[in-house]
Amino acid sequence: MPQCELTDLSISEAGRALRDRTVSCREYVEALIGQCETKRDLNAFVSHDFDALLDAADTVDACEPPGSLSGIPLAIKDNISTNTLSTSAATSALQGFVARRNAPVTQALFDAGALLGAKANMHELAFGITNNNPVTGACRNPYDLSMIPGGSSGGVAVAVAARMMPGGIGTDTGGSVRLPAALCGVVGFRPSVGRYPGSGIVPISRTRDTAGPIARTVADVCLLDSVMARVDPQEGLCGLDGIRLGVPRDPFYRNLEADVAAEASRVLDQLAKAGAVLIEADIADLSERNEAVGFPIALFEFAECLSEYLGECGTAITVLDVFEGIGSPDVKGIVGGQLGDDAISEATYRRALEVERPRLQELYASYFGRHDVEALVFPTSPVVARPIGDDVTIDLNGERLPTFATYIRNTDPGSNAGLPGLSLPTGLTPAGLPVGMEIDAPVGADERLLAIAAAVESLVEFKAAPAPGPGWIDEQNRRMTQ
Hints:
482 residues; alpha/beta; eleven-stranded mixed sheet; two-stranded antiparallel ribbon; 42% helix; globular
């Protein structure tokens, strides 16, 4: 099978080919490594050991495949502990740090036969959405190398979209799996908080953090989810005819980029034609309720959670060491504020955790119940990818708006309420940049959400893939002349 066909295989397709022995694991891994070398301009990875990966592939070929992911290499975000490659959270103080044990989520994947393909680049310490990281270098969008891939799990999304790896695992606090998935044209799933074990991950917030799979199909996300959650894989599609979906125009459809608004309208029209019942109903006071929850919880919990992680890892590195080594000005400002005079007080934190977050959760629960809807549907991001370097502000409809706040506007509320959410690629703008639509469901309704997402995926039939960029073509030409 040609290399391009091998790298295009989904996890499910590659798994069948490996089990049927129509393709050897070494052949498959060699094709992926070749793609990684060809597309290294994307800067998707911070570390890898391709010799060890080939050895692991040979081991798979030498025995009967033992698990549902046997022989499948995955990109693992650099803040998720692995005991072979380092786990640096893409920050200076943790460079070269190798954890004593795998995080439970990665161990579950390895127990199912998955291989560690590489550790993926990320926004430093997961505190951002551009993936423009001075420590590890900017990660680039495979659809346009001058654009951001989104973050903080940008490296995983880039690797999956660019066919460097068939899937991977990121983390999501306020949108860090779904946003890069949307900007890179892949599927990103944030489960209900607590569906996967949270230990062994360089943290921001015990209340808000969760790992999340990124892949090119919903079926692959379902497979990764079933392994990490230790549940039976999702089977079959649900029907869209008669399904009730909430369309909260305010705030989720307010002030969208024109191309995003057009794509969202097209998708809603498709859903209606397929028989879905679209309930146009806003979520009153959502933005105000959400603002009282997000930063007070995340910023207060960060130092304590990071200290606990470092202690559990047995390293002498301290929170202060991490702070002093931060290379990203935006991250330095956020973390420094919490370590200084502007720190969130415990009283503010307790109110956010014990009063405001339950109110936010009740707001969502009331919405789902009152309108009898199974899920919400809205644009994952108000804008598509923007140029690398627009770290402080971006342009939206003629205004310069804060980059971080603009990107997380739609993903953050569900995150703070602990809802499951999935970003699904649905189309490209006229400029060729991906647009994602998000589906959010009630807490605990993860498997129903995945079934709905699979049905929507079959309806929109997103088939786009990034074309090789100039840097890759130049590299290929250079090699041919050697």
